[in-house]
């Protein structure tokens, strides 16, 4: 019975697509930011600061969980 349940959970997770859109938008925003940094060098410093803040927020959230 547990084998059957584990296979059912695998199939449900395989079909799960709720977070897919959010990841795609995040990747798109990252690509746009990199393109802006390449096209406008003065903006690259600000983009770097924003990514650093995001990284520190993610690290803080991971350490608290």
Defining key terms:
single chain, about 60 residues, mainly alpha, about 90% helix
Q: Explain this structure to me?
A:
Helix content is 89%, strand content 0%. The protein has one domain (2-64). With 65 residues, the chain is an all-alpha fold. The chain contains three helices and no strands. The chain has helices at 2-15, 20-39, 41-64. The mean pLDDT is 79.
Q: Mean pLDDT score, rounded?
A: 79
Structural class: mainly alpha
SS element count, helices: 3
Can you write the helix and strand succession as a string?
HHH
Largest sheet: none
Runs with pLDDT <50, length 5+?
A: none
What's the domain count? 1
User: Which percent bin holds the helix content?
Assistant: over 70%
Distance between the first and last residues' Cα: 32 Å
- What integer value in Å does the Rg equal? 19 Å
Count of β-strands: 0
Percent in strands: under 5%
What global shape is seen?
elongated
């Amino acid at each position: 019975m547990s084998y059957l349940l584990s296979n059912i959970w695998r199939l449900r997770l395989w079909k799960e697509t709720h977070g897919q859109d959010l990841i795609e938008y995040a990747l798109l925003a990252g690509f746009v930011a990199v393109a802006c940094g390449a096209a406008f060098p003065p903006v690259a410093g600000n983009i770097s600061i924003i990514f650093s803040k995001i990284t520190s927020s993610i690290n803080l959230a991971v350490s608290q969980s």
